[in-house]
Specification:
Farnesyl Diphosphate Synthase
Length: about 280
């Protein structure tokens, strides 16, 4: 298997909504975003699929070494062998890749966030930086587009957090800020135990509605920040916004039943939403 085949398999096999946005890109840009996304998946899988935190930390340290080695001209991992030839053309720097590793390191060391600013720092590493790199690959021409990319990355990550509350609880992680749990009278142990009952769900859904409203504001802010000159080039990001925002609305319609089920969109619906942005230019 060639490095290019490896990253294609990694990206397609993830089932992520991001993959549907890649389909509409010209071949060189599609190759770059596929390789970069495969890198993000590899690093993220270290934390999600390794039960021993010591082993996971060792693997992340290996990735830091591999990144340095790759930028010195000696990549070993197939993801890095696919990605490195494309980095100069799309302004992908060593600091971008290390930031993604730093974000995953936070997952190993931190399972709670005291407040929203603390959560934002985490989102900056695992989503804002990813958005910045993606915007360059898609064809950014205005420096103002970077602010849009970071804000959209935050919106997407907040949506992920809302969707994955139940799954994260199984890993003893809570990404909802502690002070906001307190604000709405929800206890951390109730989330970790995935408590049932009408009284708890009323408190929980009020908390989650607050989270969803913030995510919607981030989507609106991101769209307002996107310069008109880059709107056409950034269509793949707009496709992701359309898919993820539709997912968020689906979660809202289900009244935030996210503790015991994972809400998702069908592949056909994702493809339709992506095509609508591509063909009609609207979310």
């Amino acid at each position: 298997m060639t490095p290019e085949q490896y990253v294609q398999q990694k990206a397609a096999g993830s089932g992520s909504s991001f993959y549907y946005a890649f389909l509409f890109l010209p071949k060189p840009r599609r190759a770059a975003i596929t390789a970069f996304y495969a890198f993000c998946r590899e690093v993220d899988d270290v934390v999600d699929e390794t039960t021993d935190s010591g082993v996971a930390a060792t693997k992340l340290a290996w990735w830091r070494t591999e990144i340095a080695r790759s930028f010195a001209g000696q990549p070993n991992h197939p993801v890095m062998r696919a990605l490195m030839p494309l980095c100069p053309d799309y302004r992908i720097g060593q600091h971008h890749l290390l930031a993604v590793v730093d974000g995953c390191q936070m997952d190993l060391e931190q399972t709670r966030y005291l407040d929203y600013p603390g959560l934002q720092r985490y989102c900056h590493l695992v989503a804002g930086i990813v958005g910045e790199v993606a915007a360059n690959i898609f064809g950014q021409t205005s420096p103002e587009t970077t602010a849009y990319a970071h804000r959209l990355g935050l919106a997407l990550q907040l949506t992920n957090i809302i969707r994955d509350v139940g799954e994260d609880a199984l890993r003893s992680r809570i990404y909802l800020p502690v002070n906001e749990l307190q604000q709405f009278g929800v206890k951390a142990h109730e989330i970790l135990k995935r408590v049932e009952g009408q009284e708890f769900h009323q408190r929980f859904s009020t908390l989650m509605r607050f989270q969803a409203e913030r995510a919607h504001r981030c989507y609106d802010e991101a769209l307002a920040l996107l310069p008109a000159v880059d709107r056409r080039a950034q269509k793949p990001g707009l496709m992701m916004a359309s898919i993820y925002r539709d997912l968020l609305r689906e979660i809202e319609r289900d009244d935030f039943l996210v503790l015991r089920q994972r809400v998702s969109l069908t592949p056909l619906r994702k493809l339709w939403l992506a095509w609508r942005v591509q063909a009609l230019g609207r979310l």
